Amino acid sequence: MSNELINHKLSISRIITTKTCIRLTAVWLIVSFFMVFGHFFLGGSISPLIAIGVFFILLLTIISAAFGVVKEADELAHKLGEPYGTLILTLSIVSIEVILISAVMLGPGENPTIGKDSIFSVMMIIMNLVIGLCILLGSLKFGEQEYNAQGTMSYLGMIIMLGGIGMMLPNYIEGAGGGAFTYTQTVVLSSLIIVLYGLFLILQMRGYRHLYVQPKEGFLEIPFKERQKKNTNDLHNIPAVNNKREIWIRSILLIAMILPIVLLSHNMAVVVDYGIKAANLPTLLGGVLIAVIVFTPESMTAVKAALNNQFQRAVNLCHGAFVSTVGLTVPSVLIIGLITGKTVLFGMTATETILFTITLLLSLMTFLGKRTTPIVGVMHLVLFAVFILLIFNP
Q: Distance between CA 109 and CA 273 in Å, rounded?
């Protein structure tokens, strides 16, 4: 056996570990089971006991697959560098969210606010709980942590624009009664959001990528053209020949982890809809559940980055996740509603509007400087606690 073939096998075994094989096998076995026998459990009337059992099986499977997605995307992040790696991770996670929301929308029940509920829940979880933990835990370990203020402020600008247009505006524009856009408003606003988000990604990946990496002393004093040249050189320094095979394999594994979530999303939607109605729970919990399922792995990755003194990566993960959530979810949900004739409501309640506004203002104050402040992390955590309180005691 040639050395090249041996090295090839060793490379594949290093990428596709035993743990990855076990995860893929277990997840796909459950997918196969529900594809064959799912209608026996979820068709017609569902008993509470079966609903609870199916829910936990699906929950563990989807979360396990989501962790697999994060693992492969995180490995790609290290190979491709910032901001490409984080962008792959964020887009992978947000695509899962869009899939789950779409499944709930197209499910048996009427869930006109599921898109809004999910986006709002993501905001409160990512922008308050996770950011608060990153700031507080990172500060306890390293003291003040540095980040790239320019890049962070561009994220916040996008959050204000996309969040304001997609979620605050519907309550106040004529013709959008109860947060439902008209046909023209749906088409135009969806197009504007997609264009704005697309331009943001293009600029982020090209000449302005230095704004989304951990700042180095004196780098921003270098003339702009020199910075662009340095960015290009950094990209060329990535050992593409050695990484090419691994990048392809990990990309295939990434897709193999996302597909089970797509295939199980309808079953999860049926169970969630049944559980909320049967237990008479607040409808917002459906959106919270989707946000928790989807963003738990990425949230853990962000906290881990902060504890590794990579605070800019934590910022990229958190703020990038919410920008992608609004930039992709709002147009997707609006277009699905337009095609299927389903009612879509994006207007927030008075309480949600206040929490939304406080979160935006607090986030702006948090990242006006160049270093983190521990007490601000506590403020974000307190605001998240208020959000949880108001779900059950509106």
A: 7
Distance between CA 292 and CA 286 in Å, rounded? 10
- Quote the tokens at residue 318: 């958190």
DSSP state of 129: I
Q: If you ran DSSP here, which 8-state letter would residue 126 be given? A: I
Please, how many CA atoms are within 13 Å of residue 351, restricted to the half-sphere of its CB? 13
Report the C-alpha gap between 179 and 347 in whole angstroms.
4
H helix intervals, the chain: 3-15, 18-42, 48-80, 84-105, 114-124, 131-142, 149-163, 183-205, 224-236, 240-278, 284-307, 311-340, 350-366, 374-392
Domain ranges of the chain: 3-392
Which pLDDT score is estimated for 149?
A: 86
CA 202, 231, 151 angle in degrees (round to 5)? 55
Measuring CA to CA, which residue among 32, 102, 53, 36 is closest to residue 271? 53
Tens digits of per-residue pLDDT, 355-386? Answer: 999 999 999 999 988 888 889 999 999 999 99
Interatomic CA distance for residues 315 and 148, integer angstroms: 9
Measured CA to CA, the distance from residue 172 to residue 166 in angstroms comes to 12
3-state secondary structure of 112: coil
Q: Are 297 and 93 in contact (CB under 8 A)?
A: yes
| DSSP annotation of 1 | -
CB count in 10 Å sphere of residue 93: 26
Write out pLDDT tens, residues 100-158.
777 777 766 677 888 888 889 889 999 999 999 999 999 998 888 888 888 899 999 99
279 DSSP assignment: T
The CATH architecture of the domain made up of 3-392 is Up-down Bundle (1.20)
Query: Exposed, middle or buried, 111 (CB in 10 Å: 0-12/13-18/19+)?
Result: buried
Mean pLDDT of 77-88: 69
Interatomic CA distance for residues 80 and 162, integer angstroms = 28
Other C-beta atoms lying within 10 Å of the C-beta of residue 61: 23
DSSP structure class, residue 125: I
- The rounded mean pLDDT for the chain is 80
For residues 183 and 393, give the distance between their C-alpha atoms in angstroms, rounded to a whole number.
35
Tokens representing 152 are 């962070």
